[in-house]
Amino acid sequence: MFGPRAAMLTLYGDYVLHRGGEIGIGSLVRLLSNFGLSEQAIRSAVSRMCRSGLLKAKRSNRKSYYSLTNEGHSLLTEGAQRIFQRKESRWDGNWNIVTYSIPERKRQARDRLRLELGLMGYGALGEATWISPYDLTREVKNLLERLNIEEYVNIFSAQHQGGTDPRKIVSHCWDLGKIHQKYVGFLGEYHPKLEEHRRRLENGETIESSECFVARFNLIHEYRKLPFSDPDLPLELLPDNWLRPQATALFNEYRGLLTEKANEYFDSVSRKYRGARRAKHLAGSAI
């Protein structure tokens, strides 16, 4: 379904970050085993994330605990903002335009610029011209400074004076059909699951906390892919059947239904690992 690193990022971003800030290796193994990940795969992912500067380790009572570094915290915080704070503003008619002429000797920085502009939500109007309906000048300037290519890039704010429908410009710069199909797939998979969850609750059925944890984890893992492929363009620039509002509403409702019991399960697994050593010690003292 997903690799151990992706699962770790989801777990830290949605649970650990908000529930104590650190987690024991035994808890990580137990929680992620729900998704078919082996202990070896999880431990290897933890080691790689420590080497890459995203996690840091702490030893306590012969147990290992892992928390986010400042870099890891920033990565997940920025990701959470992208996922949970979708753009909702109306378009003011202005385009933010980035053009560049970067020499071949700086090809690596040029490729990085293109990648980062796409992640920010810019669309390619031409080979070296990218546009956005949002004013992201500050973000772009920060990127140019990091890449040390300020002298090769120009940023403009302008209005289109031609007779072309803005929606046609959007359809040229972004693959709306591909994005639309991702929303279709998400709604097709999770709308029936939400309805089933509602039905079970209405019938008075008790739903296990572990089941809620797994369902919520999968929901968030799948939904978080959408904001990174959808630039959150203003609705007036999109087709009338655009499904982002429906997908966002479904996600928020289903996540809300699952949250309390999912948190209960996460907390119980975390406490069990922390308390196992103490319980063993007390049992030995009683003998």
Number of domains: 3
- Which stretches of 5+ consecutive residues score pLDDT under 50? 277-287
| Proportion of residues in extended strands | 5-15%
Amount of helix: 55-70%
Strand neighbour order, sheet with most strands: 5-6-4-7
Structural class: alpha+beta
Round the Cα radius of gyration to an integer and report it.
Answer: 23 Å
The total beta strand count reads 7
CA-based shape: flat
Count of alpha/pi helices: 10
What's the rounded overall pLDDT mean? 88
Question: For the report, how would you describe the main beta sheet?
Answer: 4 strands, antiparallel
**What is the straight-line distance between the termini?**
46 Å
| Element string (H = helix, E = strand) | HEHHEEHEHEEHEHHHH
List the helices and strands and how they pair.
Elements: H1 4-14, E1 22-24, H2 25-32, H3 39-51, E2 55-60, E3 63-68, H4 70-84, E4 95-100, H5 107-120, E5 123-126, E6 129-132, H6 137-147, E7 153-158, H7 166-173, H8 176-202, H9 209-223, H10 244-286
Antiparallel strand pairs: 1-3, 2-3, 4-6, 4-7, 5-6
Characterize this entry briefly.
The chain has 287 residues and is an alpha+beta fold. Helices cover 57% and strands 12% of the residues.
Any key phrases for this structure?
10 helices, 287 residues, Alpha-Beta Plaits, alpha+beta, four-stranded antiparallel sheet, Arc Repressor Mutant, subunit A, flat, 3 domains, 7 strands, single chain, three-stranded antiparallel sheet, disordered C terminus
